[in-house]
């Protein structure tokens, strides 16, 4: 009896130790991803949804988000290993390839599938036609930027010769454009949100057309990384893409009010009703990609936009600069 009692005590102790050990076990360490976004913009709502709703954390990722304030700065951060992943226009990888980079920067997941700007007029125009811009001035973006290339592409498509039939104002800093238009500069303004909605609310401007609808689909904003990073960290890239696709699904099914509520922490200076207006306008314009796959047709459309702008010296090989493996798997697995 004594021996059995001792053995029983030892067994009980072992079980208690195992139970306590399991209860005090620390959660698995999360993989850290340094993400650099080109600007802070409501245009990138699905990214903020993935962060705020915990979709990255569900995948075991800890995402450190920084804002570079410039496509060249994002690319510099990625190339110099200061960032693991960049969020920027896919055209930047074409430019890097044109410059003879020794290692390609690869686009692996798409976030936005159309240009996110709206042409804002001073007066409300129910039946806008691009011929109305002839002899007028438009506050635009710098040469070589995707917004400017898309604007010129859409104008040509609609029978307007940009900078000949009209004047493009390009000497105003991005941060000052909305104030400049509100104070009387330009007849039209190619505006991102929330500028378009703010001007509309103030009665100082009226969005008349979505440039993204007229330009067609293209990989306007994508997640990219150095080829070596992707090859060394395929599981991490897959988890990142899974989280993005879950956010894309959430956004497609959410109301503008729900999207605005999630975005609010990232735009504390913007009133919620403006965020609701932005989300509604972007959903109606089909701005956000429904899945992260960058297809070849979109890639070629981007090339045509760049070609017409005189910015395409050497086409970016789709098979070299685009990897759809992770996006295709995410689309199959994430519902």
From TrEMBL:
Gene Ontology CC entries for this record: periplasmic space
Localization per record: Periplasm
A matching Pfam family: NMT1
Keywords from the UniProt entry: Signal
Superkingdom of the organism of origin: Bacteria
Domain SsuA/THI5-like: start-end pairs: 45-253
Record's keyword annotation contains Aminoacyl-tRNA synthetase: no
Record InterPro entries: SsuA/THI5 (IPR015168)
Family: Belongs to the bacterial solute-binding protein SsuA/TauA family.
Protein name: SsuA/THI5-like domain-containing protein
Species in which this protein is naturally found: Effusibacillus lacus
């Amino acid at each position: 009896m004594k021996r059995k009692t001792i053995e029983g005590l030892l067994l009980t102790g072992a079980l208690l130790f195992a139970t306590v050990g399991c209860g005090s076990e620390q959660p698995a360490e999360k993989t850290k991803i340094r993400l650099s976004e080109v600007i802070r913009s409501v245009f990138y709502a699905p990214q903020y949804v993935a962060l705020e709703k915990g979709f990255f954390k569900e995948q075991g990722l800890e995402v450190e988000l920084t804002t570079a304030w410039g496509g060249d700065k994002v690319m510099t951060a990625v190339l110099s290993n200061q960032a693991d992943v960049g969020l920027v226009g896919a055209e930047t990888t074409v430019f890097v390839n044109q410059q003879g980079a020794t290692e390609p920067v690869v686009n692996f997941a798409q976030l936005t599938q159309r240009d996110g700007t709206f042409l804002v007029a001073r007066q409300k125009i129910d039946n806008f036609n691009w011929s109305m811009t002839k002899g007028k001035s438009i506050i635009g973006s710098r040469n070589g930027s995707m917004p400017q290339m898309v604007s010129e592409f859409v104008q040509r498509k609609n029978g307007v010769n940009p900078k000949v039939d009209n004047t493009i104002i390009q000497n105003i800093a991005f941060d000052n454009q909305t104030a400049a238009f509100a104070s009387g500069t330009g007849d039209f303004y190619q505006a991102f949100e929330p500028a378009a909605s703010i001007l509309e609310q103030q009665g100082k401007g009226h969005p008349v057309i979505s440039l993204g609808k007229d330009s067609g689909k293209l990989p306007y904003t994508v997640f990219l990384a150095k080829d070596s990073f992707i090859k060394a960290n395929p599981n991490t890239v897959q988890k990142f893409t899974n989280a993005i696709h879950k956010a894309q699904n959430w956004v497609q099914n959410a109301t503008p009010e729900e999207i605005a509520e999630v975005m609010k922490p990232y735009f504390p200076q913007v009133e919620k009703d403006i965020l609701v207006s932005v989300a509604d306008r972007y959903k109606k314009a089909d701005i956000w990609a429904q899945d992260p796959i960058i297809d070849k047709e979109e890639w070629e459309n981007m090339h045509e936009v760049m070609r017409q702008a005189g910015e395409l010296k050497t086409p970016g090989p789709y098979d070299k600069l685009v990897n759809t493996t992770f996006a295709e798997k995410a689309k199959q697995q994430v519902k």
